[in-house]
Amino acid sequence: MLCELKVFLPSKTPVVGCEITPNVILTRPPGSSKAPPPTFRFEWYREVGERVTIFCCVHHSEIATFQCMCCVMLKVPVKESYYCSKRCFSDTWAKHQARHRRAAETLSKLTDNSWLSTSSWFGYENRDLVDAMETVAEREGRSWIKVGSSKTYVPSADDFGYILRLESIATDNTKGNPLAPTNIILTYPVISAADPHPRCLIEFIPQEGPSNLNVELQTSSDETFNVLSYNVLAQLYASNISYCDSWAVMWEYRRHNLLREIIEYQADILCLQEVQSDHFENFFEPELVKCGYSVLYRSKRNKVYIGSGHVIDGCATFFHRGRFKEIKRYELEYANVASSVVSTLNIEQKDVAELHLAKDNVALVVILEKINTDSDTLHPIICVANTHIHAQPKQADVKLWQVATLVTGLEKIAKSNIPVIICGDLNSLPGSAPHNLLVMGKVDSNHQDMTEDPYGIFQHLVFKHSLHLVKLLFPFQGDHKLL
């Protein structure tokens, strides 16, 4: 009995320049004996439409008759792999072979694919090059041009507007026999993402009302630094976003936009939330280290399997190593504090209350010292807190408790005359109890959120603080089309 081969794409709409890596699952029949891992083969094709005309890379006015698949494997630009005739190919073989060699040398620095060959092309005079390097394949009455033979494919400008076809084959490692029928996926036409809109700056005017800070009294220097707080949306939470096209939430598409935007802000301190663990290790950390940042990361504990491995999100703080250096860091797992909070409850409520409070959220707090400061009036040490508060709308008590827990710890740091900056995603609207606690320094006992206390923990907590905080992000009121 054959196995079942399932192949999934992150989106059925490919985007020019954004790599496509399928998720592959091979399911063996029930009761089958244990077998060695299979071998997978992948073939990518682009449909030939009426408008598709491929020209020779040497004689640009001549239509190509075949494609060099070694160029495809070596990731040579697609346009350089097409030739109009065998004579054309043989006449330019010396230059073509040198192109293979350069491409192989480039790949060898990036991969361990030692099997890639740059040797001479033996006996091509005696072979039908059109057969050996077929440009066009016929499938179900439609014509397709082979464009790739690796698991990952990056659509090029040549693919724009055309459908891609992925053929996936699973074979055993002993005899090379197929283990399952060939899996075939047809995509939607390849699109080209729009250019990013220019940054639109809008002046925010602070609303009048009660506050916990006199800004004029606290300002002590004209020296400034920039801080950015950004929830980058972990990919493991991105599958249920119904109001956005699937291609637009693909990590392969979003990561380049995120990095470009973050770099454009030129912030001295970056506080990112929902940073997926593998994205931090493979993307954010190496890319931002190149840009001069030092890196801190605290992930949640409960990892989730997503097909390619176990991952989880967390908070990441980056600071420009030319302006700051780390003095000390603190990591807060709210779940670890829950047991001490419920210790005052009766036995019947302790377990269920602790389970209710023990959400897998974290905070990352770092003490930074400014480097080479010439100012005698600005304190050279600052505290930056980065957190992601519980998101469940119906559990306002958990949100309030987490914010209160964070503020209690920050108060101890502030007593050493260290300025405090709090960044994060509070998952709380202005006017809510968590928001009021931060901005106002207290929560009124008659606040609506104070009535949502199913386990009676509020009576054992103090919802006020002495930190002089000012809100630096205000609700936007105006034409949303300006954004």
Automatic annotation (TrEMBL):
<dbReference type="GO" id="GO:0000175">
    <property type="term" value="F:3'-5'-RNA exonuclease activity"/>
</dbReference>
<dbReference type="Pfam" id="PF03372">
    <property type="entry name" value="Exo_endo_phos"/>
</dbReference>
<dbReference type="InterPro" id="IPR036691">
    <property type="entry name" value="Endo/exonu/phosph_ase_sf"/>
</dbReference>
<protein>
    <recommendedName>
        <fullName>Endonuclease/exonuclease/phosphatase domain-containing protein</fullName>
    </recommendedName>
</protein>
<feature type="domain" description="Endonuclease/exonuclease/phosphatase">
    <location>
        <begin position="228"/>
        <end position="445"/>
    </location>
</feature>
<dbReference type="InterPro" id="IPR005135">
    <property type="entry name" value="Endo/exonuclease/phosphatase"/>
</dbReference>
<dbReference type="InterPro" id="IPR050410">
    <property type="entry name" value="CCR4/nocturin_mRNA_transcr"/>
</dbReference>
